[in-house]
């Protein structure tokens, strides 16, 4: 008999940097690349989130917690749509603790001159728009870029 109670989120996560895999208590997954770029909490904190040709250094990483870890870590807080409160890091100045909306504002205010800012803003705008849609529909799903990311570079001045 398979346990139907686990059907909500049976996901075998695998850390890119160390042998950790399975139902990791806490892991980080790239918003843009999806679960092909996943790090366990320890590796992420040690800065092992190595960029690659596809996975750019400014890609926001989403923290994912299993229920046990969440209850231990966020005593008394509620998951929103099955997700823990997110805290993003600014890839340009390493400031921590932004929501996706705050990070979008921060990048506009502080880093509008940065060469990669338009690409990050593109991602953040879509994250924030998708969040509104998810909120309305009560759904969660993978983020999909509206246009092919590889062609975005040629649009820059
Ligand atoms: Zn790891
Ligand atoms: Zn990525
Ligand atoms: Zn910054």
TrEMBL record:
Entry keywords, A to Z: Metal-binding, Zinc, Zinc-finger
GO molecular function: zinc ion binding
Keyword Zinc assigned: yes
InterPro entries in UniProt: Znf_ZZ_sf
Protein name: ZZ-type domain-containing protein
Species of provenance: Drosophila navojoa (Fruit fly)
């Amino acid at each position: 008999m398979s346990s139907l109670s686990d059907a909500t989120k049976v996901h075998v996560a695998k850390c890119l940097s160390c042998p950790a895999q399975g139902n990791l208590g806490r892991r980080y997954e790239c918003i843009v690349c999806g679960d092909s770029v996943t790090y366990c909490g320890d590796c992420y904190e040690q800065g092992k989130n190595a960029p690659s040709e596809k996975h750019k250094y400014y890609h926001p990483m989403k923290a994912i917690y299993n229920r046990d870890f969440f209850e231990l870590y966020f005593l008394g807080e509620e998951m929103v749509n099955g997700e823990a409160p997110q805290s993003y890091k600014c890839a340009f100045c390493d400031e921590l603790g932004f929501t996706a909306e705050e990070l979008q504002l921060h990048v506009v205010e502080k880093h509008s001159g940065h060469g990669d800012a338009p690409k990050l803003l593109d991602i953040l705008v879509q994250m924030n728009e998708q969040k509104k849609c998810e909120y309305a529909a009560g759904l969660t799903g993978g983020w999909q870029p509206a246009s092919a990311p590889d062609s975005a570079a040629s649009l820059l001045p």
